[in-house]
Amino acid sequence: RGFPDVAAQGNNYEFFINGTKELISGTSASCPTFAAIITLVNDYRLRHGKAQLGFLNPLLYKNPNAFTDVVKGKSQGCNGTDIVTDALLQDPVTGLGTPKFDMLLNI
Predict the structure, then answer these.
(1) Contact at 8 Å (CB) between 68 and 101?
(2) Is the pTM of this model over 0.85?
């Protein structure tokens, strides 16, 4: 598809690769971060007798208030081209925005 549904900070994350500390940025950092947030939400829900979130896309788009909309900024695409964010709600750089953990606990 080429466009994100959500975003997360992904700049200069410390990783260990073959025992060596490295800094990575981009989707390789932000994707596991968002996945970890959803894992924590599912854990909370299970501990409170609720079902896991399941397929996320319909749920996320029904709850845009669970995200901080990123309305200004830019990202460098895979081909080195800057993509500018200048839109309300869903946009081609940050999707719905960055997650609000406390709001996700209540959807």
Answers:
(1) no
(2) no
